[in-house]
């Protein structure tokens, strides 16, 4: 919407313009008046207007003088001249002042609105150009870092296509300039605690603060460009670029920069960090190797001896093969214990694993991460099979531990063990509650179904799918409750019904066989003999009152 000022010393003309102008139709929100040129100039200097309609002949300050002043002080202001004098001097000044239109008195509706629409058209076009310019600059300023991040990520993941991204290579120094590049990874060991206590849970604000610190003290010679890793929110990737110089210098400066960033993060926000740096390379398109070395250096840090922040250089140490205890191998035992309702036994298995790890020679960050991920994955599968996934996990947007209130921070092995126990408590508690609440009703429903559908081909998979229970767990529950397995119980019901039906001499054995769900009379007879040690015919002859 636009603001318009009418400057004229004649009140009838000002009123006529008010009445004749299609202000709402052309998008004008406010029309103000000034009684002469001097008052009009004062209003222009005090307020912002988009369009001014000015009379050329006024006392104290004429329209021509006002145009000259406006040309200097308000170069972007649009003006429409109104005059009762068809005078060349006025026209010449109007042309010189880039007036949108020149109207003669008396002003009529058509000419006035035509001039107003012309002026508004100019204003619309101008605003559009300004908006596009601003948007382009905003987009450029915001997208350049994102573009660099995307390029670096694709290089690290070895999916970068040089030909299709050739125009952007100068952004990352891959345009042939003599430079050295290195990749570092910084991991926040207490990220969740810091995000909650220092950043009020705002992840974006935390990321902004961390990357700001990591990018500090960059200059034209040595620069750091960092961003949150797409593979894990605890990790931040830093790309170090040094123009000219030697590879050893690039390695030293990168390590020094990472250590300083870790120290600053600890001092400012209480963030405990661990980091790894890969060896420098002379080509930014070769950063994948440096990233992998940095990741290996980070993952190989010994959690058993980790004290505070530590930055390690990668590329030289060879991985050592060790036969550490595995939680994955213990998960079937934990699963069996949970399904049987023996939570304490399951907990003792987990505690024994934690103790074994603590007694090992080395237990690395990488092993801790893999153990944690595998533990959550298998517990989730167990809980899902029992329809006992914790509500916090089920309803969480990310489907992970963030929604459960359990912190997965660990900066020491003791804290890692606490995370494992916290996760176990979350899942085992829900599994126990679900089993105690639902076990009886589920088993009663299954038994009732068999009692009423014994003549059908009953498959256990029907119940496992319906109640989200594993086959082994369901079979164990049913037998524990009724003393029979599900197949055994189906057979018992059929045989009980067979005895009752055989008591009716009017029913043929073939008919009884079909009524019980057996398609073959001989198969029914064989099943009956195996169950009662006699054939259906012999059973009938043994009944009192039946002639032999």
UniProtKB/TrEMBL annotation:
4-aspartylphosphate: modified positions: 55
Coiled coil: none
Keywords, in A-Z order: DNA-binding, Phosphoprotein, Transcription, Transcription regulation
Domain named Response regulatory: residues: 3-120
SUPFAM superfamilies: CheY-like, Homeodomain-like
Gene3D superfamilies: 3.40.50.2300, Homeodomain-like
Origin superkingdom: Bacteria
Domain HTH araC/xylS-type per the UniProt entry, residue ranges: 444-542
Keyword Transcription found: yes
Protein known as: Response regulator
Lineage of producing organism: Bacteria, Bacillati, Bacillota, Bacilli, Bacillales
């Amino acid at each position: 919407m636009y603001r318009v000022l009418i400057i004229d010393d004649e009140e009838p003309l000002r009123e006529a313009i008010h009445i004749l102008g299609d202000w709402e139709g052309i998008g004008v929100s406010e029309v103000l008046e000034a009684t002469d040129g001097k008052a009009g100039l004062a209003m222009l200097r005090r307020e912002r207007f988009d369009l001014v309609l000015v009379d050329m002949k006024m006392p104290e300050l004429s329209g021509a003088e006002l145009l000259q002043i406006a040309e200097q002080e308000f170069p972007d202001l649009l003006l429409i001249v109104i005059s009762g004098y068809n005078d060349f001097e006025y026209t010449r000044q109007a042309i010189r002042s880039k007036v949108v239109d020149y109207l003669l008195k008396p002003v009529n509706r058509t000419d006035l609105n035509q001039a107003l629409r012309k002026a508004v058209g100019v204003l619309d076009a101008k605003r559009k150009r300004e908006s596009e310019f601003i948007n382009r600059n905003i987009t450029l300023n915001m997208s350049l870092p994102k573009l660099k991040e995307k390029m670096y990520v694709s290089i690290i993941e070895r999916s970068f296509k040089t030909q299709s991204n050739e125009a952007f290579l100068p952004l990352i120094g891959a345009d042939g300039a003599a430079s050295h590049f290195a990749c570092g990874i910084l991991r926040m060991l207490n990220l969740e605690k810091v995000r909650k206590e220092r950043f009020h849970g705002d992840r974006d604000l935390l990321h902004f603060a961390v990357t700001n610190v990591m990018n500090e003290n960059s200059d034209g010679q040595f620069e750091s460009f960092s961003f949150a890793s797409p593979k894990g929110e605890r990790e931040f990737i830093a790309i170090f670029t040094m123009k000219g110089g030697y590879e050893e210098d690039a390695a030293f400066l990168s390590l020094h920069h990472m250590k300083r960033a870790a120290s600053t993060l600890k001092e400012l926000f209480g963030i405990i960090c661990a980091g790894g740096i890969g060896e420098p390379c002379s080509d930014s398109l070769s950063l994948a190797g440096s990233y992998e070395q940095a990741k290996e250096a980070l993952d190989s840090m010994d959690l058993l001896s980790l004290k505070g922040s530590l930055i390690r250089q990668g590329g030289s140490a060879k991985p050592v093969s060790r036969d550490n205890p595995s939680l994955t191998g213990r998960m079937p035992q934990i699963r069996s214990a949970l399904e049987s309702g023996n939570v304490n036994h399951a907990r003792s298995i987990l505690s024994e694993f934690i103790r074994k790890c603590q007694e090992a020679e080395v237990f690395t960050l990488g092993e801790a991460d893999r153990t944690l991920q595998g533990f959550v994955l298998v517990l989730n599968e167990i809980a899902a099979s029992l329809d006992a996934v914790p509500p916090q996990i089920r309803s969480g947007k990310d489907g992970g531990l963030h929604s459960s209130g359990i912190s997965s921070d660990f900066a020491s092995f003791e804290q890692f063990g606490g995370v494992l126990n916290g996760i176990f408590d979350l899942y085992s508690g829900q599994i126990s509650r679900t089993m105690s609440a639902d076990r009886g009703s589920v088993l009663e429903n299954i038994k009732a179904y068999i009692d009423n559908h014994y003549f059908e081909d009953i498959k256990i998979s029907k119940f496992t799918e319906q109640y989200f229970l594993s086959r082994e767990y369901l079979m164990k529950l049913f037998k524990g409750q009724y003393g029979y397995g599900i197949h055994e119980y189906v057979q018992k019901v059929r045989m009980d019904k067979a005895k009752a039906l055989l008591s009716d001499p009017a029913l043929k054995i073939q008919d009884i066989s079909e009524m019980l769900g057996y398609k073959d009379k001989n198969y029914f007879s064989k099943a009956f003999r195996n169950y009662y040690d006699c054939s259906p015919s012999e059973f009938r002859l043994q009944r009192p009152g039946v002639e032999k």
